[in-house]
């Protein structure tokens, strides 16, 4: 059980981004975290996995508890050893390493080195395409293949909890479906808890058990997926069911990006 | 012809030492995007430490070499801890400036401890040259070459297959993503500096055995600059091939051209080559130049 309890996150000592964010991920469940651009989804994940430091961020209030341990402000390698693994936004594969070496890197914190070869086969079982590409430099893979590799690294780490940041980013709709089908399958077969951040709410909610909606640094709604799917506000804003919602987030994204620069 | 082969052989041997020292340089560059301008002083210190162990303490060479490597590994760890770690998120130029400062500090230290006259290693290798098809090779050259080749093979295997080697390359590729894999980035940096220091020291010990040791030896820190620029700053195979190329060309140019112009060409020749290469391949022979596909 992962418990994010009312955390505040500050970047560069002065930009307050999370303003009392809370969420929970029960064991073995898939939880979706939805929200518009800049709401603080990635920040939430990085706070959990201890990766804020590299961006000049810091948890200034609240705490993050995983399996009864307060892991707030632990270093990323210790958090991975606890069994919490994040696959970062934008895939972030190691471009100059081969596919296989990327998978090895994913297994870095594993103690049971002997099972690594076997687990590599499991990754290939979920993503057969990677097998044919295994000696190619990851930088040369297509975006979709890189995303499979990024998730594959997560499988190699054998975490108890996998944090996925926008696995659908920049990927064709058909492939998105397939990747999410695989995520579900991983959750069921490996019993891995999954916290998935998504812009594509439709596909995320199609596999999740529970969902949170984050706006401006705090969670504004949480409910089992069945409830979220029938909630009118969610339908309009996140599932693109009304005219307004259909305007799609691309425009919003462009607008927010512009805002960030100013 | 024998003269040419003679020059070739000595070029290969000196080139292999360049390759080794350049390897340390490239490692640091890959890990922190910064030039380590204290590399020449690492070479110097390693050479002096080993010299002291074999002369003052009369230790057998291999024992002395191993102790030197140990001491230099610790030195590398300390440098990372004290000088580099506080600069972890600092701009590259600050890191480079810090290495310049460190280089001066180490140079001063060497001067204080060992003075400035040239010291020579006792004859550790037999004097009588071996002949290979008419080419004379002194044992010290032969052994240097063997030691360097062994080390290069060990490191190549290490980087390609070992867990730590893969982790080091991952860190070089994308620091934050590497951290997200559970790789202890600080430890990787520390080990990188330790290795850089070790290879520099071995280079220093071998050069010391060939030419003797004095403070000017740290010039090799500058000579490997053309080597790594030639090979591509971020390429380990590039550093190795570049080392050999520069070593060989320098030796041959020195042998044939120096007598004509009255000497001195040997030292600047590597820089000529680099200018030429950069005109055609701005990222060096093996540099990545941004393999991108997004
Ligand atoms: N390193 C940083 N320094 C300063 N501000 C930052 C930093 N990283 C993110 N922010 C700001 O924090 C806010 C939340 O960013 P975050 O990346 O968590 O958003 P997100 O919900 O993941 O958005 P997206 O859907 O676009 O990925 C944004 O306003 C962003 O500008
Ligand atoms: Mg994000």
Automatic annotation (TrEMBL), chain A:
It comes from the Bacteria. One of its GO terms (biological process) is L-amino acid transport. InterPro entries: AAA+_ATPase, ABC_transporter-like_ATP-bd, ABC_transporter-like_CS, BCAA_Transport_ATP-bd_LivF, P-loop_NTPase. Gene3D superfamilies: P-loop containing nucleotide triphosphate hydrolases (3.40.50.300). GO terms for molecular function: ATP binding; ATP hydrolysis activity; branched-chain amino acid transmembrane transporter activity. SUPFAM superfamilies: P-loop containing nucleoside triphosphate hydrolases (SSF52540). It holds the Pfam family ABC_tran. Residues 2-241 form the ABC transporter domain. Keywords: Amino-acid transport, ATP-binding, Nucleotide-binding, Transport. Belongs to the ABC transporter superfamily. PANTHER family: ABC TRANSPORTER SUBSTRATE-BINDING PROTEIN, HIGH-AFFINITY BRANCHED-CHAIN AMINO ACID TRANSPORT ATP-BINDING PROTEIN LIVF. This is Branched-chain amino acid transport system ATP-binding protein. It comes from Halobacillus dabanensis.
From TrEMBL, chain B:
GO terms for molecular function: transmembrane transporter activity. It is a multi-pass membrane protein. Keywords: Amino-acid transport, Cell membrane, Membrane, Transmembrane, Transmembrane helix, Transport. The keyword Disulfide bond does not apply. It is found in: Cell membrane. The chain crosses the membrane at residues 6-29, 61-79, 91-114, 134-159, 188-207, 213-233, 240-257, 269-286. This is Branched-chain amino acid transport system permease protein. It comes from Halobacillus dabanensis.
